Amino acid sequence: MSAFSAPPVLKKDLDRRAFFRLGGTVGLVAGTTALLAACSTDSPSSTSSSGGAAAAGSLGTIAVQLSWIKNIEFAGEYFATEKGYYTKAGFKGVTLLAGGGQTGAEEALVAGQALVGLSGPSITAPAILKGAPLKIIGTTYQKNPFCLLSLEEKTPIKTVADLKGKKIGVQSGGNQTTFEGFLKANGLTTSDVTLVTTQYDIAPLEAGKYDAHMSYLTNEPLLAEADGFTPVTLGFADNGLPFVAETFTVTQDTIDNKRDTLKAFLKAEIQGWTDAVKDPEQSAKYAVEKYGKDQDLDQAEQVKEMTAQNSLVLTDDVNSNGLFTMTDELVSETIKSLGDMGTTITADKLFDLSILKEVYKENPDLITSFTIPAS
Q1: Which of 24-33, 246-255, 279-288 is predicted with the least confidence, judged by mean pLDDT?
Q2: What CATH fold (topology level) applies to the domain 31-143+243-366?
Q3: 84 has a pLDDT exceeding 60
Q4: Segment 352-366 mean pLDDT
Q5: What is the DSSP letter of 362?
Q6: How far apart are CA 46 and CA 357, in angstroms?
Q7: Which of 336, 309, 375 shows the shortest CA–CA distance to 140?
Q8: What value does the CA radius of gyration of the chain take, rounded to a whole number of Å?
């Protein structure tokens, strides 16, 4: 625990760095050949192929496996529930399964426990290479949230060039793999820095034990600020290692047999996230007062995290093409970044963005122009 005080929500969120899901790996049962139908009672053709809404309740109840505890990260899902977007799309209901335990999205999908799982390509890609028939059909975050956090009052690291000769605190496992990929993408190696194996508390950084700490843009910088420091962040996405995060993952069976159900789900999600990014205050209220009530979340900090999260969700490309979409360039960048992190996979094996394209073709009014947060 940090020697410095911090809002409870930030301490709780720091606990999840123990598996830093976007940079970790997943242990799936290899060789799985028979998949259960994902948790729903819908039929393969419950919605109109022309984009019309399904009959009320005709899509049944589905489960969505979240990637973490019910905090601000899933504000769009909260809005979609509260505003009735899921039910208007034809669902009887949508069950949001909290993450953070031993079962990740990939396992839940393979086991038939969820129709859709929220995850990241650096987890899903290795699972696919182990034999799991999965695909990513869209992404909430256009930018991954990884960064190196340093402090203005200590040794600020503002550019990649500043890294040379510095001591960097990195958590072992998936985070180290991601960091080494970041170095490789920038023509550096571990010999250019001094790696210090650390945990997830930033107290060593604040005490000057090392110069930068492997962090999450939406979390640890806020902790440092709460402790009275001026955070300096070097985001991976904007400095050589761009890849998407908080992706929507499904089984190939669901794509093949429940395509219209997925389209209805994505439409409701788009509507929910459109509302959420426009209203950080209400997003925080949903997280604090209802969905994450048992997490002792702090309202003010959740607002700050939502504001920071918006910088990962909203881009000029999103304004042009719609939420959750990926340009060809972003797909290519993600594939290259995965390669830098040691996972070689092709775009066609990892992504199927055709469903989302159909949703926007049938519902062009869903494309919204947002105010892009300053980086």
Answers
A1: 24-33
A2: D-Maltodextrin-Binding Protein; domain 2 (3.40.190)
A3: yes
A4: 98
A5: H
A6: 19
A7: 309
A8: 20
Q: Token pair for residue 315?
A: 């881009």
DSSP 130: T
pLDDT for residue 55: 85
Task: Supply the CATH classification number for the domain 145-235.
Answer: 3.40.190.10
Q: Which amino acid is at 244?
A: V
DSSP 8-state symbol, 366: G
pLDDT above 60: residue 9? no
Name which of 249, 200, 198, 236 is nearest 220 in CA terms.
200
Domain boundaries defined on the chain: 31-143+243-366, 145-235
Cα→Cα distances 357→121, 187, 265, 299, Å: 20, 36, 14, 36
More confident residue, 103 or 276: 276
φ, ψ of residue 266 to 5 degrees: the values are -65, -35
Q: pLDDT class for 78, splitting at 50, 70, 90?
A: very high
Number of residues written out for the chain: 375
Q: How far is CA 347 from the centre of its chain?
A: 18
